[in-house]
């Protein structure tokens, strides 16, 4: 199986698999390189993401063709995506899933933790899930995460209770000492 960025030629197939998205939105996601596809004699699955608060990667959709499920393709797509995020410097990823869907079990197996949820109008409870992608630096038990906002790097201390813009490694060291 090969995993790659989606191309414009993939759009007709992707539209048949995702009924939750408008044509323009999916086209823009493909052009912005926010869609991965898994291929094995054709597309067997795909993953689309965006950013929560414009800084935290958020997996919007993970789809595996029904006939191809339970073969590990979804896990491989998520693993590939997480590695891609690590290479970009991200340390956290989020997603959500309906509490009545089986996909929540996949996310738990992959190390995601439920951190909240909400009730959409006329739909079942939606779980919010979060995963730390790497061992974070620790200062007195506080967690330090890296995020990016409009191209700028930020360190977020203790789950968003304090935030510091990082202009240099010296700023990072100063921020960590404050923890």
TrEMBL record:
Lineage runs:
Bacteria, Bacillati, Bacillota, Bacilli, Lactobacillales
A Pfam family the protein falls into:
Acetyltransf_1
For this protein, the record's InterPro entries field holds: Acyl_CoA_acyltransferase (IPR016181), GNAT_dom (IPR000182)
Q: Which Gene3D superfamilies match?
A: 3.40.630.30
N-acetyltransferase domain location, by residue?
A: 1-134
List the molecular function annotations (GO) for this entry.
acyltransferase activity, transferring groups other than amino-acyl groups
Highest taxon of the lineage: Bacteria
Report what the protein is called: GNAT family N-acetyltransferase
């Amino acid at each position: 199986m090969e995993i790659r960025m989606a191309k414009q030629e993939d759009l007709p197939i992707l539209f048949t698999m995702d009924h939750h998205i408008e044509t323009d939105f999916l086209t823009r996601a493909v052009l912005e390189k926010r869609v991965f596809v898994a291929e094995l004699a054709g597309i067997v699955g795909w993953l689309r993401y965006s950013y929560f608060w414009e800084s935290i990667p958020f997996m919007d959709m993970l789809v595996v063709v029904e006939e191809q499920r339970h073969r590990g393709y979804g896990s491989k797509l998520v693993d590939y995506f997480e590695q891609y995020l690590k290479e970009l410097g991200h340390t956290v990823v989020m997603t959500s899933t309906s509490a009545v869907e089986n996909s929540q079990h996949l996310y738990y197996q992959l190390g995601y933790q439920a951190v909240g949820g909400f009730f959409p109008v006329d739909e079942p409870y939606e779980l919010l899930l979060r995963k730390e992608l790497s061992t974070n630096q620790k200062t007195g038990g506080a967690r330090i995460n890296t995020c990016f906002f409009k191209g700028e790097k930020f360190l977020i201390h203790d789950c968003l209770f304090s935030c510091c813009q990082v202009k240099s490694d010296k700023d990072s060291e100063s921020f960590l000492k404050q923890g």
